[in-house]
Amino acid sequence: MSNWKTLLLRIGEKGPEYGTSSDFKDHIETCFGVIRREIERSGDQVSPYLLQCAEQLPHKIPLYGTLIGLLNLENEDFVRKIVESVQANFQVALDSGNCNSIRILLRFMTSLLCSKVIQPASLIVVFETLLSSAATTVDEEKGNPSWQAQADFYVICILSSLPWGGAELAEQVPDEIERVLVGIQAYLSIRKNSSSSGLNFFLKGESENSPSEKDFVEDLWDRTQSLASNGWKLDSVPRPHLSFEAQLVAGKFHELRPIKCMEPPSPPSDHSRENIGKQKHDALMRYPQRIRRLNIFPANKTEDVQPIDRFVVEEYLLDVLLYLNGCRKECASYMANLPVPFRYEYLMAETLFSQILLLPQPPFKTLYYTLVIMDLCKALPGAFPAVVAGAVRALFEKISDLDMESRTRLILWFSHHLSNFQFIWPWEEWSYVLDLPKWAPKRVFVQEVLQREVRLSYWDKIKQSIENASALEELLPAKAAPAYRYSLEEGKEKTEEHQLSAELNRKVKEKQSARDMMSWIEETIYPVHGFEVTLTVVVQTLLEIGSKSFTHMVTVLERYGQVFGKLCPDNDKQVMLLSQVSAYWKNNAQMTAVAMDRMMGYRLVSNQAIVRWVFSPENVDQFHMSDQTWEILGNALNKTYNRISDLRKDISNITKNVLVAEKASANARAELEAAESKLSLVEGEPVLGENPGKMKRLKSTVEKTGEAEVSLRESLEAKEALLNRALSETEALLLLLFQSFSAVLKERLPEPAKARSLEDLKSEDENSSAMEVDTENGNPKKRSEIGDREQWCLSTVGYLTAFTRQYANEIWPHMEKLKLEVFSGEDVHPLFLQAIFSALQIPLQ
Hints:
The protein is an all-alpha fold and 845 residues long. The chain is globular, with a radius of gyration of 33 Å. Helix content is 64%, strand content 2%. Among the domains are: 4-286, Serine Threonine Protein Phosphatase 5, Tetratricopeptide repeat (Alpha Horseshoe), CATH 1.25.40; 299-475, Serine Threonine Protein Phosphatase 5, Tetratricopeptide repeat; 491-568, no CATH class. The protein is built from 34 helices and 4 strands. Helix 2 (24-56) crosses helix 3 (61-74) and helix 18 (404-419) packs across helix 19 (441-456). The protein has a two-stranded antiparallel sheet with strand order 1-2. The protein has a two-stranded antiparallel ribbon with strand order 3-4. InterPro entries: ARM-type_fold (IPR016024), CBP80 (IPR027159), MIF4G-like_typ-1 (IPR015172), MIF4G-like_typ-2 (IPR015174), MIF4G-like_typ-3 (IPR003890). Keywords: Coiled coil, Cytoplasm, mRNA capping, mRNA processing, mRNA splicing, Nucleus, RNA-mediated gene silencing. Residues 8-228 form the MIF4G domain. It is found in: Cytoplasm; Nucleus.
């Protein structure tokens, strides 16, 4: 990397590029001297790289803004082009709805104002344009209140930029900035409090659950008012431009051109709950709230930090996570060394966990956050590991109220995190969970973490890791030996089924084909023993042959999958096949899930068969005691929608190729026609057309391009047919899924008059069937646990909400059918509808 690039990239950091100095003023002066000379040689390269640094390292924006301010003193033309580029990028971001670019570029323009580069009045015009768009959007008559998420986002962008330039605006244009703040207050008075109940981490106790409490926009407004009343002074935003103020005042201001905001879609003509909910969902997907605060630590852990400083540090952390997601060690390094003068480990942990658990989905996979937390624990060994452990303990205490999807993510993260630190954890603190009922959320959490750890290591290793709480061995899964019915143990009676299994085993070893094996089964086993015995022998024997490893199992399914397919052609028999797989791998949840996933991948079982198996009586009673069936259901739904996504991508690519082929074919025909219209001499005689050799090549090209176009069109038609079939199957799958949820919930949920909300389920059983646990070793008395049936209802409704929220984009196209066949009718329980509507952002009233 060039020296000037390194200086730009590492400005404000401790490193060899700037010697021993860590002073921002020294860094800016050094960088300015080099960049000033470099502009004369390669100005076209400096400008885009400088903008890229400012956009992708936004916690350094004040440094880059000051540097540009100094450059403005000597090279106004260069800086004018930078300002034009910033504004052009800002308009492109507004037009495309690129939330991160809009937010960062507005912050950058505010910082440029501090460096006397941008005219304050023109920045106020940008603020007022955004604010006007927001106010119009939430207006019942002129706008579309369903798209309040877009309006809120614009207001958040204005408020979030003020910590970087509020003091300068208040000093230079006090009346104008006051007008903007009054406009924001007026906007807050006409917008609706966005409770977003389907996106809360906890079932109760969180601020967003009640309209009387403040949502994120109102909270940020309070923080901004507190900042303004404090004279716009804060600790978290460096102000290096003050060191150069005497020089910067001589710089020329550059004007910002007017901007245009993207208008939201028109409101639906039919103001039904579903149409409003669909638009609200679309708006939230387009303009998501980037953080929802967990507030898991006591207030005294961050009480010395101003409210606005907390917000700024959250912005820093989220920006670093976003822009350095491909460099985890660099990401952890920047997160551990933010330009703030106070400690923020607790705030960093809360922010990271809020991202891991964020609903409807985090910006990145859980694995990314796992690696960043691991690197932070290594970078800050004296502080961060203890903070992470404290966060886990705090979340564990609230686990019964945590959303089911967030709970599953926490289990996956925690088990993976422990695997990176030799599975060390003070399990004795949680040994009291053995005194709780099998369905208690804390007990299930510990059980699921231990089971996931076994997947990441081996049984004996995990048993050794809990030796300080050896009683927890009860929660470990059974040792992962398959339950093979036809093993030849001493003293065990050898039946005819044993002989059939041995014969089938011999045929596999002889590498007989699936067709020959199926013929033998149909002639020898099926007529004599019937379907159930035949299925048991075949499944047990073939799975036993493939039980040594994943590779062995996949090989068996590839080679003899046709046998399963021929034996079980319909959903009823496929459900029986899945039951046999579950019985064989009853001691190994991972192999059960993998086997069923591969069977669906090879189309040996359908997604509907998996749904029916999950909701079969043998599994329904375990819904609140284990995540295994939910994992299998989630895998089936994922595979279904991944298939649809792949088909859509294929269709998009083929459509582009068809357009290219059409153009190539048209060009070839035009070239041939032009050649045919020309006169040429052949043996002294005038002949229509060019020389025969060229004509032959042109005709050949026309034929080839025409064939390529036809082939692509046929491929496109085939893919579209597959997509239509997949969408039709998806509709049937969703109908079955929600009908199954509705049926099992109807059997167990209390009468609607007794349970109008999930909280009613808890309060109903809190006094009657509750049990209290007195723990030893000085631990406090644990609160009551609710009963079996109530916990089953809470867990099942929680998973219903989670699946609906996760696949909302695929559910909406089938909403009319689902409403007609599942969501309407007097026998539908209100809690069932409440779970679905909250997940889809449909108003309950």
